[in-house]
Amino acid sequence: MYLSNELKKPSLVNPVVLPVPVVTLRSTPYLVLPTETGNRYLPLVGSNCWTVGRGDDNNFVLPDRWISRNHAMFQCTETGDFYLIDLGSRNGSFVNGRRVSIPVTLRNGDQLMFGQTEMQFYSPSNKNDIDINQNTSSETQTSTLHVRRLMTVMVIDIRDFTVLTRQLDEKILSALIGTWFREAGNIIRKSGSWVDKYIGDAVMAIWFHGSQGVGNEEILNILQAVSDLHTMTVSLSKQYPLPFALRIGAGINTGYAMVGNTGSGDRPDYTAIGDTVNAAFRLESATKQIGLDIAIGEETYSYISQLGNNKLTFKQHTVNLKGYDEPTVTYAGTYADLSNFLASRTLR
Length: 348
Hints:
Elements: E1 16-17, E2 30-35, E3 38-43, E4 49-53, E5 60-61, E6 72-76, E7 82-86, E8 93-95, E9 98-99, E10 104-105, E11 111-114, E12 117-122, E13 147-158, H1 161-167, H2 170-190, E14 195-199, E15 202-209, H3 216-237, E16 248-262, E17 269-273, H4 275-290, E18 294-297, H5 298-305, E19 315-319, E20 328-333, H6 335-347
Parallel strand pairs: 4-5, 16-18
Antiparallel strand pairs: 1-3, 2-3, 2-12, 4-6, 6-7, 7-10, 8-9, 8-11, 11-12, 13-15, 13-16, 14-15, 16-17, 18-20, 19-20
Helix pairs in contact: 2-3, 3-6
């Protein structure tokens, strides 16, 4: 029942056929695929994303006629967390019996269904099973953040998503959002970052910088990623029968934040927290107040201003961010403003 394109990809480990999980898989995240001849164990190693589908270009090729050519994707973040992202499949992806239309975090032992193919996800390093030979406390300790880094945080939010879910057929919504998340992840990875968080109808990405500050190429990569996300959204919006055009808002902020593992000991989460991150979310929300597409923090804008004579024609605004006692200065504009700026850089 199972054919794997992994045999053509030396960077990935070939599927392991075992009667039961053994010690070699105790520290390796893997999928279990029940077959007529026994379980197949598919280690999730050698990459940070793996695709599932009928097409030969997938990492895991499943010859199930109910499965789409490119059905779903597993993504592992730098935190070690795994997300399942439906790629706009016709018949949907299910986690523990529930259809998913946005990326969901997988937990050890989750039951997955693609078409008529059942699989299980296991991540031994995150499992809640307790070794009976060890003396462990019933309480888990919280890991502390341990590194202070200079970073740029970008938050992209799909506008009017709640309204869209009420007006759009579930299958179309799943296909639309699944494709959007897949393309957004590709654009962000190309720019030198990764999707740190999937938050309902939004994504958060982080770019780490050196102690010397943000280089010109780094800031241009970030701005290009925002522009590409907008272009992709407009293009995707035209492919589906939507009640209104799909739009996104963006908040970008640069500063220092603490980075490391947070959360409970059995469910660690490698992420960044602090005012820099919080402000990026608030800046994105502020775009709705001022009726513009992109809001940029003062520190980020100062680095953009160092790029040369061709200025980004964003205007200064003073906004009241939720949770902040004092008004905040931001520079905001449209995607057209950003596109013109990037085009002028290309022509130089």
